[in-house]
Amino acid sequence: MQHIYLFVVLFFLMMSCACQQDTQRENNNARNKQTPVVVVVNYPLEFIVEFLVGPEIRVINPVPSGADPETWLPNDAMIQTIQESDLIITNGADFADWVKKLSLPRSKVLRTSLYLKDSLITVSDFEVHSHGTKGAHSHAGTVAFFWLDPALMIKQAEAVAQKLMVLFPQEKKTVTVNLKKLKDSLEVLKQKLDQLKTKYAGLQWFSQRPVYQYLARRTDWSVHHLHWKKHLSPDDNDWKKLKTVQEEHQIPFMLWEQKPDEKLVKELQQRGVASIVFDPLTVKPTQGDYISEMQRQLNQLEQFLTQHSIALDTSKK
Amino acid sequence: MNGIFRLTVRYLLYNKFKTITLILCVTLSLLLPVVLQFGITQFEQELHFRARSTPLIAGAKGSRFDLVLESIYFSQGKLESISMKEVEFIEQTGYALPIPLAVRFTAQGSQIIGTTLDYFEFRDLSVAEGTSLKRLGDCVIGANVAEKLQLKPGDRLMSDPLNVFDLSGNYPLKMLVVGVLEESNSPDDDAVFVDLKTEWIIAGIGHGHQKINVETDKDLLLKRDPQRTVANAAVPQFNEVTEENLASFHFHGQAETFPISSIIVVPFDEKSEVLLLGMYDVEQSTLQLIRPIVIVDELLAMVFRVKKLFDVNTLLVAISTTLLLALVFLLSLRLRKRERQTMFQLGCSRATIWKLQFTEVLFIVGASLVLVLMVAIVFQMYASQVMRFLFF
Question: Which spans of this chain does the record mark as coiled coil (chain A) (predicted)?
Answer without folding.
Answer: 172-199
